[in-house]
Design goal:
CATH topology of the largest domain: Glutathione S-transferase Yfyf (Class Pi), Chain A, domain 2
Bound molecules: glutathione
Strand order of the largest sheet: 2-1-3-4
Structural class: alpha+beta
CATH architecture of the largest domain: Up-down Bundle
Oligomer: single chain
Number of domains: 2
Largest sheet: 4 strands, mixed
Distance between the termini: 35 Å
Order of helices and strands: EHEHEEHHHHHH
CATH class of the largest domain: Mainly Alpha
Strand content: 5-15%
Shape: globular
Helix content: 40-55%
Length: 220
């Protein structure tokens, strides 16, 4: 078996697959996708993912893109870790939260990350107040759903972390610099503290801090 993960680890979508693979103790080769240098637009990368986006997984001849699909595939490599339950209802519950992530949580958090973090790297101007107002309205519409769940459970789908937690927690890696409005949500903040205390989360984050994305100017 030869597993390869192509990722820009400073992006939450890259971070989550690396952190989950590390949490599962999987052996993989890491290939840095330098978004700043446009690696994602090179023909060899587009042959893997015609969307021109990372992350991408390769497992021998099998190629998979979409970070949440990758998370589920990784979890199935180590079913005994319980990151994706075997029972139909258990799997559906985790999948439900990952669809909720892809439909609501990830795009809403991405507004704050883009406006407050990415634009700074790209040097493309000040945050757009209208975008942030839209983000805040949507965030306060959906965050209470996660807050209620995390008042009832230590992790999103019970008392142990699953790939849904890796998916949903990853944008909060940038909660502070992105000004994601978490103040009213004590349970989400408590859960994120628990997630970021996981050894694999800390290790993945420390690797990022050791190699910050110095040049983010797309096409440079
Ligand atoms: N839904 C996709 C989104 C992937 C995505 O948007 N990746 C971004 C970085 S966060 C990317 O590679 N952008 C490169 C570009 O737009 O040129 C996933 O979860 O994998």
């Amino acid at each position: 078996m030869s597993l390869t993960l192509h990722a820009f680890p400073h992006s939450p979508r890259g971070f989550k697959v690396l952190a989950a693979a590390n949490h599962l103790g999987l052996d993989y080769e890491f290939r840095f996708v330098d978004l700043g240098k446009g690696d994602q637009k090179r023909p060899e990368f587009l042959a893997l993912n015609p969307n021109g986006r990372m992350p991408v997984l390769e497992d021998d001849a099998f190629v998979l893109w979409e970070s949440n699909a990758i998370l589920q595939y990784l979890a199935d490599k180590k079913p005994e870790a319980g990151m994706l339950p075997m029972s139909a209802r258990g799997r559906a519950d985790v999948t439900r939260w990952m669809f909720w992530d892809a439909s609501h949580w990830d795009p809403i958090c991405a507004i704050f990350i883009f406006e407050h973090v990415v634009k700074g790297f790209l040097k493309t101007g000040a945050p757009d107040a209208a975008e942030i107002a839209k983000g805040e309205q949507r965030f306060h519409q959906f965050a209470p759903v996660l807050e209620i769940q995390l008042k009832m459970h230590k992790f999103v789908c019970g008392d142990k972390p699953t790939v849904a937690d890796f998916s949903l927690a990853s944008p909060l890696y940038y909660a502070e610099p992105a000004k994601i409005p978490l103040a009213p949500y004590a349970a989400i903040r408590r859960w994120y503290t628990d997630m970021s205390a996981l050894p694999a989360w800390k290790e993945t984050s420390e690797r990022n801090l050791a190699a910050p994305p110095r040049d983010f100017s797309l096409g440079a």
